[in-house]
């Protein structure tokens, strides 16, 4: 089982220093619209998001951000292996539609599905 902790997440415009997104993880409502792919268990406690899974997973923040932003967060692996890869900028599928379109091939968190699939 892999587990990691994420503390409050902020996204701000690098140009105007305007706050674009903030998530304090103050309740499970804070992640109710996030999209899980793969066998991830997400829990929120004490303003902390804990993600745990026996294998690979992707956990999408369903926000579209402009270019040139600064994203900050605190991350702590709580067991090994503590590998985490963060993707930013996945706003649309190749055809311009949603990356969550049910007509796309199913994804389960396996890395090749995100760089070599539809």
UniProtKB/TrEMBL annotation:
SUPFAM superfamilies to which the protein is assigned, alphabetical: Concanavalin A-like lectins/glucanases
Keywords, comma-separated and alphabetical: Signal
Record flagged with keyword Ribonucleoprotein: no
Domain of life: Eukaryota
Protein name listed in UniProt: Uncharacterized protein
UniProt keyword annotation of Methyltransferase present: no
Gene3D superfamilies linked to this entry: 2.60.120.200
Pfam families: DUF1961
TM helices/strands, residue ranges: none
């Amino acid at each position: 089982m892999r587990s990691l902790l994420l503390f409050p997440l902020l996204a701000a415009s690098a140009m105007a220093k305007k706050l674009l997104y903030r998530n304090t993880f103050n309740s499970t409502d804070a992640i109710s619209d996030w999209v899980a792919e793969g066998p991830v268990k997400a829990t929120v406690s004490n303003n902390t998001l804990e993600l745990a899974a026996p294998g690979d997973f992707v956990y999408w923040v369903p926000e579209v951000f402009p270019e040139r932003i600064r994203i900050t967060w605190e991350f702590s692996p709580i067991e090994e292996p503590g590998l985490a890869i963060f993707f930013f900028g996945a706003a649309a599928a190749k055809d311009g539609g949603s990356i969550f379109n049910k007509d796309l091939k199913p994804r389960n968190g396996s890395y090749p599905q995100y760089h070599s699939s539809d």
